[in-house]
Amino acid sequence: MLNTIDGLARRLVGSSFFYMSKFLFRILCVGPMPNHIAFILDGNRRYAKQQNMAEGSGHRAGFLAVISMLKYCSELGVKYITIYAFSIDNFKRSPEEVQYLMDLMLEKIEGLLKQESVFNEYGVRIHFIGNLQLLDEPVRVAAEKAMQATANNTNSNLLICVAYSSTDEILHAAQASCQGKWNEIQELNTTRSQNAEITEEKLELDHVIKLVDIERHTYMRLAPDPDILIRTSGETRLSNFLLWQSTNCLLYSPKVLFPDIGLRHFVWGLLNFQRQYPHLQKRKKEL
Fold first, then answer.
1. I need a labelling partner for 118 at 20 to 30 A (CA). Which of 150, 183, 189, 265 fits?
2. Comparing C-alpha atoms, which of 89, 77, 179, 170 is closest to residue 124?
3. How far apart are the C-alpha atoms of 252 and 206, rounded to whole Å?
4. pLDDT tens by residue, 73-98
5. pTM (2 decimals)?
6. What are the residues facing 124 on neighbouring strands?
7. What's the DSSP call for residue 35?
8. By C-alpha distance, which of 188, 181, 187 is closest to 203?
């Protein structure tokens, strides 16, 4: 009898939460909505310590929070969601923790490939972003398969930054831009003798690397700049994440640890964005 009442209570609470979230989202959609939200998943290790969980278990709890945020974003029509899952600097952690994170990543990716998941349910396309050659081969292969498996999903895009840092991204973009420009110069020099219209002035102009050249080679070229960057645990540092892309986005730092982030934190971030939207738009026009 008690089990029946307990089950009924859970269903009622779940149903109430569902309708409350729908109601909140309808209100929020009246105002301007972000096109791209980025997350720094801060506090997983502290969460595990506070809960007396085994080391690494906080990352597993953090994965469930990612799924919740993904659902909220999808229901609101946010087209791009980016998460900072694993920094290049994280390779400096203990070999045991790094291996645990690689194993967890592989487990979750393989779970996605084996069965229908929230990604296909919500039509989410997955992109793994970063210097993927630094990943273990099984993880890299699984990531490539996941990207192929969700390539036809068109509702929204989840960009998972792994083996990523902004300094590495900018260095990669600069090197690729230089190489691309050098290839163009070589091609122009080859055809110059055959085309009198290619003047010295045009050659010099074409030798210049422009902003668009750099941006074309960044890892994050697949998405527009974020509108909101959310970092949990109250930290306000960017920690080498999206330094190139975050010039004009709203920074939001709730004190909650990432595994505990919930609907109220998410909604408050959106309300802050809508309140500051006119100022953010003005800044974009000035730039």
1. 265
2. 77
3. 41
4. 999 999 999 999 989 998 888 888 88
5. 0.86
6. 156
7. S
8. 188
Query: What type of residue is 151?
Result: A
What's the CA gap between 214 and 174, in Å, rounded? 6
Residue 170 and residue 243 in contact, taking contact as beta carbons nearer than 8 Å: yes
How does DSSP assign 187-222, residue by residue?
A: HHHHHHTT-TT--HHHHHHHTSPPHHHHHHTSGGGG
- Tokens 């960017």 found at: 238
Comparing CA positions, the residue from 25, 5, 9, 23 lying closest to residue 267 is 25
- pLDDT at site 244: 95
Task: Give the closest residue to 33 by CA, choosing from 4, 74, 86, 1.
Answer: 74
**157 residue type, one letter:** N
Please give the average per-residue pLDDT across 96-125, as a whole number. Answer: 82
Mind telling me the catalytic residues?
A: 42
How far is the C-alpha of 27 from the C-alpha of 5, rounded, in Å? 33
- 205-218 pLDDT, tens digit each: 567 788 898 999 99
More confident residue, 214 or 186: 214
Instruction: Tell me the residue type at 244.
Output: W
